[in-house]
Structure formats: C-alpha cells, structure tokens
C-alpha cells in the first residue's frame, strides 16, 4: 500500500478529532483536547473540530461556568441557550456570553424583555 493511502485527509482528521472530543469523559475534554492537538499535528483540523465539538459537549454535559464578576455560575444547556454563545441566567436576569473552547464565561449583558420567561413560567422556576 502506498504511503499516501495511509494519510488521512483533512476532513477525516476533523471527524476523528470531533469524535474523540465529543466522547471525552465528563470533565476531561480539556485534557483530551490538549493530547489530541499534539497527536493530530494539524492546527486547522483541530480548531475546526473544537469549534464544532465543544458547544455540543458543553451543552450535553450541562457544564457550569463562573460568571465574570464571580457573583455566581451559569449552566450551559440547550434549555437556556438564546444564541450560539449566549445563555440566560434566570437567577440574575442576565445573559452570559460563553467561549465554548476555553470553557469560560467572557462577559455578561442585561437580558432583553423578550428573552425573559413569562411570569407564569418564572413562578414555577422559582418554586423548583
């Protein structure tokens, strides 16, 4: 078999890297990412895989990130996702802007009225 047949194309590298990231044990994705980056030795493929995998991983594992002002934490889930990198913190009525790959909350912004839950739903959330 020729040496070129053994080489992976960029798309396949990205798919394999994404699979490893998505299947990382809970809380271990940063360790897997570090090792994967050095083994893969293809920064472009790694970055593309990370940009796809980290948001899915973070939401499926319900990670909790500290707010920038250290006033509390925000859950990263599909249930409180407003936009690609924005997550509602109903406790503070603010929106956390998240860097998925670094797994940090970079900033907060006030919540717009249309982004808030209705008073009916908020009553149940508060009770729970």
Automatic annotation (TrEMBL):
<keyword id="KW-0009">Actin-binding</keyword>
<keyword id="KW-0117">Actin capping</keyword>
<dbReference type="GO" id="GO:0051015">
    <property type="term" value="F:actin filament binding"/>
</dbReference>
<dbReference type="GO" id="GO:0030036">
    <property type="term" value="P:actin cytoskeleton organization"/>
</dbReference>
<dbReference type="InterPro" id="IPR002189">
    <property type="entry name" value="CapZ_alpha"/>
</dbReference>
<dbReference type="GO" id="GO:0030863">
    <property type="term" value="C:cortical cytoskeleton"/>
</dbReference>
<dbReference type="GO" id="GO:0008290">
    <property type="term" value="C:F-actin capping protein complex"/>
</dbReference>
<protein>
    <recommendedName>
        <fullName>F-actin-capping protein subunit alpha</fullName>
    </recommendedName>
</protein>
<comment type="function">
    <text>F-actin-capping proteins bind in a Ca(2+)-independent manner to the fast growing ends of actin filaments (barbed end) thereby blocking the exchange of subunits at these ends. Unlike other capping proteins (such as gelsolin and severin), these proteins do not sever actin filaments.</text>
</comment>
<comment type="subunit">
    <text>Heterodimer of an alpha and a beta subunit.</text>
</comment>
<dbReference type="Pfam" id="PF01267">
    <property type="entry name" value="F-actin_cap_A"/>
</dbReference>
<dbReference type="GO" id="GO:0051016">
    <property type="term" value="P:barbed-end actin filament capping"/>
</dbReference>
<comment type="similarity">
    <text>Belongs to the F-actin-capping protein alpha subunit family.</text>
</comment>
């Amino acid at each position: 078999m020729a040496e070129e047949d053994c080489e992976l194309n960029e798309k396949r590298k990205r798919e394999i890297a994404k699979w490893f990231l998505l299947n990382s044990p809970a809380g271990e994705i940063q360790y897997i990412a570090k090792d994967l980056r050095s083994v893969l030795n293809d920064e472009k493929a790694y970055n593309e895989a990370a940009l796809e995998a980290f948001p899915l991983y973070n939401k499926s594992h319900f990670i909790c990130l500290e707010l920038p002002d250290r006033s509390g934490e925000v859950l990263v889930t599909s249930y409180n996702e407003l936009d690609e990198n924005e997550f509602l913190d109903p406790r503070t009525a603010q929106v956390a802007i998240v860097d998925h790959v670094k797994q940090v909350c970079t900033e907060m912004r006030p919540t717009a009225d249309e982004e808030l839950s209705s008073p009916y739903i908020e009553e149940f959330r508060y009770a729970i």
